[in-house]
Design a protein that fits this description.
about 130 residues, alpha/beta, four-stranded parallel sheet, 4 helices, 4 strands
Amino acid sequence: MAVRIVRLGSPRGANEGIRIGTVRRPPRGVPKTEFASQNWYDVWFPNLAPSVETMKLGQQASTPAEWAAFIKKYRAEMNTPEASHALALLAALSRQSDFSVGCYCEDEAHCHRSVLRELLAEKGALLAEAPDG
């Protein structure tokens, strides 16, 4: 049992379980009925996505200082009671079932999912190793 951090749209791994999209917007040009069959996500959960303003900050970050500013702002958003409770819930579920959370970004190191991985670990989540993608 564990949570995997994945790139949405990538092929599903063995025992990945339900795929949760922690993104602000659904994939463009894809009918809702095909989100799961095209490996985007089974459930959309934008509650753990950066706000639009913060997302733009991360996308535009080109220096370590700018990326650090993004991380600080995203962590502050995830420290709100609603987001904190959602993270705690996912951490608890990771000890009982397999599921995955993810985003579209190609490079996890420059994506909010790298921070989400840390936040879930800090809440005690069991994290599974997933192929990079």
